[in-house]
Specification:
This protein has helices spanning about 1-10, 15-80, 80-95, 105-125, 220-225, 260, 295-300, 300-350, 365-400, 405-420, 425-445, 450-470, 480-485, 495-505, 535-545, 565-580, and strands at about 130-135, 140-145, 175-180, 190-200, 205-215, 230-235, 240-245, 270, 275-285, 290-295, 450, 475-480, 490, 510-520, 525-530, 580-590, 595-600. By secondary structure, it is α+β, with helices and mostly antiparallel strands. It is a multi-pass membrane protein.
């Protein structure tokens, strides 16, 4: 593991490694501390969140219980009020329709009793939330605190839950969960209602009437909405059906997570979608109902998490401040090292005049002083080596020029001598003139570089001489631009190549040699082409191989006059003059002639031959 770490850090700078090591030593302990703290506080946060949810639920339960107790209070009052019960029992014994012979005094008395009952109902419902109270007698008579246009109480007899009242005694009650609102004025704004019902029994436990107290379901909703938390709260009946919810569309549906709550391993946290929710429940007394709350877990632990985040923020700020201070100190300490590294990089790029200029008495200062002394010694050695190389280059250049084989001059002079012996004519005079130019250029050691047009003139004289020597003449085609004419090259660069073309390519027979020179993209190009016999692939490969080997410059066994210096002589001399910028290519095919391209690259793109 440590080996991999060292391999990854090895290309980095010393300052980078030092900063990384420092950061690791700071960050790792901080992250370990935060992780341990988070792990230890996780259970405490969960317990606290459950406690907070239970407290909110208990508070909501008290409000809900108060509403339901108010409904029971109304039912209890009607059930235990003796005067009210006397009136109700007397009216329950009478038939639903009065006889036609009822005296006016009796009718008035019945009206007074009815008004007293209704007044009592209105008085007991003044306190608390608005509720709809119905006293329904067995014979169909009824007393309500609402108009019959709102709802006909006799329709309660048709409700499916009404039969349950026959099995209720004393203070027992039947709680009717959320059902569609039956009161006309409430239907539009309050779609659901909740009711509680009791029986009115005489001393023989026979039912003579019923008490039904109803409130709107939204009264419970208002309790949920007024709580300080943002949890989703609902009221469930014994069958886990939703009785009250902020979303009225969910009323009547089954609570989907009841099975998870009944699991013995239930931890008060359930996953809904991709989020965790905290679930809590609270039993509502006397009803068999319970309140359930769903709270996003992250929201439930928000306060505790906020404390943790603040602590983390304090640690983060402390770390950043300390890290900046550490970085500043490390930069100050390592600044000489960075300076030394920059100097080394500059030296690698070839700048040997740069110096570290670090003045300190520590190890870095002593290293910098030693490095500066080493640069001084290197500069001195380079100066000495450069001077030696210059002298050596001049000597080699003179040696290469001295290698021009005089055998050709001997043959030419012999030819002139033979012609002069036979007859004295103008042709011999021209031949001698051309030879004189060649001799003058050869003997002149001071003039190492000449204009390209001068080199071309030398080649023309040389071809004239060769044409006089052999029976079949060579045609020389020249195409040179004005820019190429003024370029400077070493002497006798073209002559050895022309000689090879005449002797080896054309085999001393008639033929065409073309010279083309131009400047393209600031590069200097020289192209020589003959229409001779060319070379096969093996011979061409040997020529290319030997062209770049200096051994070819020395003496040869099979010399062919002036051309024995060959391509390697030309290549070496041009490389010594122009360096890596000079390039030479030889292309040939059997029976297809030979093309030699030489060019001095100055940054342009070379065209295809």
């Amino acid at each position: 593991m440590w080996k991999r770490i060292n391999q990854r850090l090895s290309p980095r700078s010393f300052r980078f490694k030092l900063i990384i090591a420092s950061v690791i030593c700071i960050v790792l302990p901080a992250m370990i501390t935060l992780s341990v703290n988070s792990y230890l506080s996780k259970d405490a946060m969960k317990e606290q969140a459950i406690s907070n949810a239970s407290r909110e639920l208990k508070l909501a339960g008290e409000y809900v219980t108060k509403l339901l107790d108010d409904m029971l209070y109304i039912a209890n009052f009607i059930q235990i009020d003796s005067e009210l019960n006397t009136i109700l029992k007397n009216n329950a014994k009478e038939p639903a329709s009065h006889a036609e012979d009822v005296l006016p005094s009796e009718e008035y008395e019945k009206y007074i009793e009815y008004s007293r009952v209704v007044k009592t109902i209105e008085n007991i419902t003044l306190v608390g939330e608005k509720s709809y109270v119905t006293i329904l007698l067995k014979n169909g008579k009824h007393y309500t605190n609402y108009s019959i246009s709102e709802y006909n109480p006799k329709e309660f007899f048709e409700e499916p839950w009404f039969e349950q009242l026959d099995h209720v005694y004393g203070y027992e009650a039947v709680w009717i969960g959320s059902q569609p609102t039956v009161f006309t004025s409430e239907k539009e704004t309050n779609p659901y209602q909740i009711s509680v019902a009791r029986t009115l029994r005489d001393s023989n436990l026979k039912i003579y009437g019923y008490v039904i107290v109803t409130i709107m379901e939204n009264k419970l909703n208002q309790v949920f909405e007024n709580l300080p938390g943002n949890e989703e709260m609902m009221l469930l009946n014994g069958d886990s059906q939703i009785l009250s919810h902020a979303n009225s569309e969910k009323i009547g549906q089954s609570f989907p997570y009841i099975e998870q709550m009944q699991d013995k391993h239930f931890s008060n946290i359930i996953k809904i979608g991709s989020h965790d929710y905290l679930i809590a429940d609270h039993q509502v007394t006397n009803t068999g109902w319970k309140l359930v709350s769903l709270t996003p877990y992250m929201q439930a632990i928000n306060k505790i998490n906020s404390i943790f985040n603040k602590m983390f923020l304090v640690q983060l700020i402390s770390f950043i401040v300390f890290f900046l201070l550490l970085t500043y100190l490390l930069q100050t300490i390592t600044k000489p090292l960075v300076r030394l590294g920059n100097v080394v990089a500059a030296v690698q790029e070839g700048n040997l005049k740069i110096r570290t200029k670090i003045n300190s008495n520590d190890e870095i200062g002593r290293l910098s002083a030693s490095f500066d002394q080493m640069l001084e010694r290197i500069n001195k050695m380079i100066t000495e080596i450069t001077e030696t190389q210059v002298r050596k280059r001049k000597a080699e250049f003179a040696m290469l020029q001295a290698q021009i084989n005089p055998h050709f001059l001997f043959n030419v002079l012999n030819s002139i001598r033979m012609k002069v012996m036979r007859k004295g004519d103008q042709e011999s005079a021209e031949m001698i003139s051309s030879l004189s130019k060649l001799l003058r250029m050869t003997i002149d050691q001071e003039k190492e570089m000449i204009l390209f047009k001068e080199e071309v003139e030398i080649v023309k004289d040389y071809i004239n001489l060769m044409n006089m020597r052999q029976k079949e003449k060579v045609q020389f085609d020249v195409s040179i631009t004005a820019e190429a004419n003024v370029e400077k090259i070493p002497r006798f660069i073209l002559q050895p190549i022309i000689e090879n073309s005449i002797i080896h390519g054309l085999n001393q027979r008639a033929g065409l040699i073309s010279l083309n020179s131009y400047i393209a993209n600031n590069d200097f190009f020289i192209v020589l082409e003959d229409n001779g016999q060319g070379m096969d692939e093996k011979t061409l490969a040997d020529v290319r191989e030997k062209m770049t080997h200096r051994e070819e410059i020395g003496p040869h066994k099979n010399k062919q006059g002036f051309s024995s210096i060959g391509l390697s002589n030309v290549y070496e001399r041009m490389r010594m003059t122009f360096g890596e910028a000079f390039h030479m290519e030889v292309n040939s095919s059997n029976g297809g002639g030979t093309i030699i391209m030489m060019y001095v690259s100055r940054g342009g793109k070379r065209p295809n031959v």
